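Figure 6 in text form: structure in, sequence out.
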C-alpha cells in the first residue's frame, strides 16, 4: 500500500467512489485491522478476499441516511427494484435491464423503502434530532481526507452531518440504525462497545480536527442519532463523552501505529504466531 498524496480537507468524490477507494484508511477498515491483520491485508492489500455484497441491512441503512439527511436526492440515490425474483429468464432480463439503468444507486425492495421512509420520518419528528437536521448551514454526507500526523498514513471519513454555525457549531452527528427495541443509555453502551462505535467517533472527531481546523477551533462534540428498526421506530440522541472518545482514540492510535509498521516492513502476519493461552469468561469460573 503506497499512501497517496493527501491534502487535508473536503474530498470531492461520490459516495460510491469513497467506498471503492482503499488507498485511504476508513474507520471500518481500521476495525478490520484491529480484529485481524491477515484479513485486513487479504481484503485491502492483496485483494484475495472479497469485501462481500451489500447486505439488506446495509441497504436499509443507506436508504435511511438518504431520506433523513438528503431527501431531495432520493431519486438520484435510491431505486426500487422489479417486483419479481430472478427465477425465469424473463425476470432475470428485467433485473439486468433495471440494474443497468440504475448503476450507482442503492436497490431496495418496496417494503425496504417503506421501512426506511418510516424510520427517516421518525428521526425528523424527534425534537433534538429534527433540530439538528433542520440546520441549513451544515456539511452533509461529505467525504473528507487527511493525513495521520504521527504515521503519515492517509485517512478518510464520510461525515453524516456536521454543524458549522449557530449554537451547535462543531457538532458531528452520525445516524445509527439498530434492531434493538431497548434504547436505554445502558443498552446503547453495550452496543457501542460491541461494534466499536467509540473508535469510529474518535476517528471522525480527529479527522475533522485535522481537515477543518477552523470548525474544530470552535470546539467539537459527537452525537449518535439512533433509530430502531422496529415500530414505532423510537429515536434517541446519545452524546459520546470525552472519556469514551479517549478510549476510542487510544485504540485507534495503537492500530494505526501497528499498521504503519506493517506498511513499512510489508509484513501482514497474524498477531498470534505461536500457541496461545486462553481463559473462559470470568462468570464461568464463579459457578464451579
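Output sequence:
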Amino acid at each position: 500500500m503506497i499512501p497517496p498524496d493527501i491534502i487535508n480537507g473536503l474530498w470531492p468524490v461520490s459516495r460510491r467512489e469513497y467506498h471503492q477507494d482503499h488507498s485511504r484508511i476508513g474507520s471500518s477498515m481500521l476495525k478490520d485491522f484491529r480484529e485481524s491483520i491477515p484479513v485486513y491485508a487479504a481484503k485491502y492489500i492483496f485483494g484475495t478476499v472479497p469485501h462481500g455484497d451489500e447486505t439488506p441491512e446495509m441497504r436499509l441503512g443507506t436508504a435511511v441516511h438518504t431520506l433523513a439527511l438528503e431527501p431531495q436526492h432520493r431519486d438520484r440515490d435510491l431505486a426500487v427494484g422489479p417486483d419479481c425474483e430472478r427465477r425465469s429468464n424473463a425476470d432475470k432480463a428485467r433485473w439486468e435491464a433495471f440494474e443497468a439503468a440504475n448503476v450507482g444507486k442503492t436497490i431496495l425492495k418496496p417494503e425496504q423503502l417503506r421501512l426506511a421512509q418510516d424510520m427517516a420520518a421518525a428521526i425528523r419528528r424527534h425534537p433534538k434530532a429534527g433540530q439538528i437536521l433542520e440546520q441549513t448551514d451544515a456539511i452533509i454526507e461529505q467525504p473528507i481526507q487527511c493525513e495521520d500526523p504521527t504515521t503519515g498514513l492517509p485517512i478518510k471519513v464520510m461525515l453524516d452531518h456536521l454543524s458549522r454555525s449557530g449554537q451547535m457549531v462543531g457538532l458531528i452527528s452520525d445516524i445509527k440504525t439498530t434492531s434493538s427495541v431497548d434504547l436505554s443509555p445502558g443498552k446503547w453502551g453495550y452496543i457501542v462497545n460491541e461494534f466499536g462505535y467509540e473508535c469510529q467517533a474518535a476517528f471522525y472527531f480527529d479527522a475533522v480536527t485535522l481537515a477543518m481546523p477552523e470548525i474544530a477551533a470552535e470546539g467539537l462534540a459527537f452525537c449518535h442519532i439512533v433509530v430502531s428498526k422496529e415500530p414505532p421506530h423510537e429515536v434517541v440522541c446519545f452524546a459520546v463523552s470525552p472519556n469514551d472518545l479517549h478510549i476510542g482514540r487510544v485504540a485507534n492510535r495503537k492500530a494505526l501505529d501497528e499498521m504503519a509498521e506493517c506498511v513499512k516492513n510489508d509484513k501482514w502476519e497474524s498477531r498470534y504466531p505461536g500457541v496461545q493461552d486462553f481463559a473462559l469468561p470470568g462468570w464461568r469460573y464463579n459457578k464451579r
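Caption detail: The two ends are 50 Å apart (CA to CA).
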